[in-house]
Amino acid sequence: MKIGIIGGTGDIGKGLALRLSDKHEIILGSREASKACEVAEETISTLGGRSCKSLCRGVSNEEAVRDADIVVISVMFQHVAPTLAGINPKYLENKIVISPVNPMGKKDGYFFFNPPTEGSAALAIKKMLPESAKIVTGFNNIAAHKWTLLDEELDYTVAVCGDDADAKKAVMKLVSEVSKLHAVDAGPLAVAGIVESLTPLVLNIAMNNGMKDVGVHFS
Ligand SMILES: NC(=O)c1ccc[n+]([C@@H]2O[C@H](COP(=O)([O-])OP(=O)(O)OC[C@H]3O[C@@H](n4cnc5c(N)ncnc54)[C@H](OP(=O)(O)O)[C@@H]3O)[C@@H](O)[C@H]2O)c1
Questions:
Q1: Strand pairing class (104-107; 110-113)
Q2: Which atom of ligand 1 lies closest to the CA of 145?
Q3: How far is the CA of 10 from the centre of ligand 1 (A)?
Q4: Which of 97, 100, 114, 119 is a plausible cystine mate for 139, CB 3.0–4.6 Å?
Q5: What digits encode the pLDDT tens for the residues 136-161?
Q6: Of ligand 1's atoms, which has the minimum distance to the CA of residue 143?
């Protein structure tokens, strides 16, 4: 599978590349293709040092979308609209789009959920995509730092919301290929805000209790 990551040079993009590029072709996108190439080379070198192959390359955000079967939107919510506006929408047609995007704010030292009027980032992003694109939430509640600790298992639940059953199934399969991640069907896109709102909760819990990389595990 070809997975294109918009904003692939960021914390989540780097982590996804490290954890997935031994099984899938990871196409890291950036506003500056050279920056994405550097991150791709770092990924290949890190995995090579562990005797693992890595199929990873860096390109522009638009090329990452164009060449992908599945697209991950890995930029902060406020950057999503301007970034998508710079990408030819035909490249997004019929594609599965994963949103790990959590719209959050910080006030008086605490994180809070700060959704757009649509109720969630996922619902707002859906409006920015061609109608045929299939948006699904994924990877919202796992700290980016944890993705890079390759000696540690990712033992978390990933709540997947979406309106297209096949897209949801494909994303749940992809999630389940990573470490000990356990994908669960969390309902339609209409309830994506619940998943997104868990992230400020876990960040506040981590901060208040001196914990690191707090995550969600439903069992
Ligand atoms: N970090 C976490 O622990 C975490 C956990 C779960 C979910 N998430 C979600 O995952 C998404 C990505 O998070 P992240 O921490 O990886 O983000 P990030 O590292 O802050 O940024 C990702 C990339 O966004 C691009 N970017 C920065 N400013 C931009 C701008 N003004 N316009 C367009 N692109 C810009 C940069 O890529 P280029 O400079 O190469 O273009 C950057 O590498 C967010 O929506 C976040 O809510 C994050």
A1: antiparallel
A2: 3
A3: 5
A4: 100
A5: 999 999 999 999 999 999 999 999 99
A6: 3
